[in-house]
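Troubleshooting: if your tokenizer reports a length mismatch, compare your output against this known-good record of 317 residues.
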Amino acid sequence: MRLVVTGGAGYIGSVVTSQLLEAGHDVTVVDDLSTGHEDAIPEGARFVRCRIHDAGELLASGGFEGVLHFAAKSLVGESVDRPELYWENNVVGSFRLFDAVRAAAIPRVVFSSTAAVYGEPDVSPITEDVTPSPINPYGHSKLAIDMLLSGYAKAYGIGATSLRYFNVGGARGRFGERHAVETHLIPNVLKVPAGQRDSVAIFGDDYATEDGTAVRDYLHVVDLGRAHLLALESSEAGRHRVFNLGSGSGYSVAQVIEACREVTGHEIPAKVQPRRAGDPTTLVASSQRAADELGWRPELSLHDIVEDAWAFMSSQA
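Known-good structure output:
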């Protein structure tokens, strides 16, 4: 298929672009490089540098069979402090992008949504039937785009899929995480053996879990990418599908740190600090719908995630 990948110079976008190319697709990457890296765009992909707001001319040039939309601002804290950035970039930009999709009669879209649309539900594992209740502008912006897609799919016959990720980690060869502001646990833990910090913080060790630390769901970026290819190939005209993507089990903060110790051979000192306000005890996904409808199941373990993330981080030194 002839495809457009927005945000293809970013972490997940670059991994999925590499998988699409390997599968034989023709890929054009759209990225404004505000957070992405041009050298992360896989060889073989064409590159158009522009904002998603301005991709209409490209899409109108004809012949595209699908759009995979990753481009977004995604820092929760920033979204609280600067919500206008998230409405203008994520929501307005996505509206203009999908309106260009409509105008160009592009038949399928796969959207990078997020578990943040659920907020802090009291149920575990979290299914797609849980009522969305985001607690920050980042989550609000992603839910708004999900709702936009639902309307466009029904009205214009677009085959749309929203994939709601939980915590993504790992790397695929030279494609990995390079964030100016890093908020993810695994790369922050790995900064200790990399010599970039002295210790890692554990925010609370008194949760009602096996070891007292909070539990989260972690998914290898390669497994995540496979779900995008399956969603793309199985899209249904006029239908908007939503799938949660996660491991279905979850790992505690202490387990993640221990996995990092095993992989790196570093002691990685950890310091317990008070809980952060609003941190739930457990956030774990049910991916049963993805298994049933896409035939997708995660194949890679927490150890694989850490091993690949460490190999990528070491290659950047």
